[in-house]
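Operator note (shift B, R.M.): manual run for Ethylmalonyl-CoA decarboxylase requested after the automated queue skipped it. Running by hand, logging everything below so the morning shift can see what happened. Input copied straight from the record, untouched. If output looks odd, do not overwrite the archive copy; leave it for review.
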Amino acid sequence: MPFEEIFTELHEQFQQERQEMALALWKNFLQITMKRILQQRRLSLYNGAHGYEEEVIKKKLQQFSGGSINLSKEDNGMAILTLNNPKLMNAFSGTMMVELQERVTELENWKDGKGLIIHGAGNTFCSGSDLNVVKEISNSQDGMNMCMFMQNTLTRLMRLPLISVALVQGKAFGGGAELTTACDFRLMTPGSEIRFVHKHMGLVPGWGGGARLVRIVGSGAALQLLGAAARVEPERARSLGLSEATLLSSEETRALAEARAWLSQYTEGPAAVIRAVKKVVAAGRELPLEAALRTEKDIFGTVWGGPANLQALVRRPKHK
Ligand SMILES: CCCC(=O)SCCNC(=O)CCNC(=O)[C@H](O)C(C)(C)COP(=O)(O)OP(=O)(O)OC[C@H]1O[C@@H](n2cnc3c(N)ncnc32)[C@H](O)[C@@H]1OP(=O)(O)O
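Run finished. Output pasted below as returned.
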C-alpha cells in the first residue's frame, strides 16, 4: 500500500478514535453534572413547583455585595467555614448567601470530609441578614424567594455527611442564630449569646431556624426563646440542650483550637464510617421510623465487610 494511503487511513482512524474519546468524555461529564443536579434537588426543599425562582433570587442577591464565606478543607477531614464580614458583625450580604450555597455544594462533593466547624471572623458569630439587604428586598416575592433559597442551603448543610459544629463566639443573632441550628452541635465561648431577635424586627425565623429549634429544645422552650426574643447565654443554652459545652477561652484562636479538639473526638477514624454514622443519625432525625430503618439498612450495607470492618475483625479489639 502506498505511503499516502496508509497515512490517510491512520489519520482517519486517529480522528475517529479522538471523536469517540471526546464523546465518551462529554457523556461522562453530562452524567456527573446530572447526578450532582439531581443530588442537590433531592437534598433541597423547594423547586419551581413551589413557585421558587432560584435564578431570579440569585441574580438579585448578587447585587448586594460585601464580605465572603471562606472554606478551608484540611487533610484530617475537618473543614473550617468562616463567615467573614466583620465590619457588620458578619451579617449576611446577598453575595454571602450565594457563596454559602457554593461552599455547601463544595462540601457535598468532598468525599474525604468528616467534620465541619462554622465560625465568624473577628471573634463574633453572625448578626443575621444584612439589614441593608433586608430593606432592599422587603417585597413579598423577593422575601419568599430569599427564604426558600436560605432554607434550601441550610437544609443541605444540615444533611451533609459531616459532623458539624457552630462555634458561637460573641453574638449569634437573627439569621445567625438560625444558622447555628443547622449544625449538629453548638459550642459557646464565655460571654457569647444566641438570640432569636426576629420578634423585635417584626419577623419570625425564615431560614428554617424555628422548625429546627423546636426539635432541639422542644416546643415550650422554643416558644419562650422566640416569644421573648430572649438572650441565651452559655449556661442557659447548656441547660436547654441548645449548646453542648462552654469552652474555656473566648479568645478567637484558642476557642477554635478547643472546638477542633472537641470535634475530633467524633471524627477520629475512617471517613467512610464517620460519614455513615452521620447519615444514620440524619435519617433517624428526619424520616418516619420505617423509612429511617430502611435507610439505616442501606447505609449499613456500605460499611459491612468494608475495609474498616475487615481490619477490626482481624484486630478483634476489646472494648474496655
Ligand atoms: C430571616 C433572617 C432575619 C434576620 O436575620 S434580621 C437581622 C437581625 N439582626 C439584627 O437585627 C442585628 C442588629 N444589630 C445589632 O443588634 C447590633 O449591631 C449587635 C449585633 C448587637 C452588635 O452590637 P455592637 O457590638 O454594639 O456593634 P454595632 O451595633 O456598633 O455594630 C457594628 C456595625 O455593624 C452593623 N451591623 C450589625 N449587625 C448588622 C446587620 N444585621 N445588618 C447590617 N449592619 C449590621 C452596625 O450597624 C454597625 O455599623 P456602623 O458602625 O454603625 O456602620
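Quick read of the result: The domain at 49-265 is CATH 3.90.226.10 (2-enoyl-CoA Hydratase; Chain A, domain 1). The chain has a mean pLDDT of 94.
Leaving this for review. - R.M.
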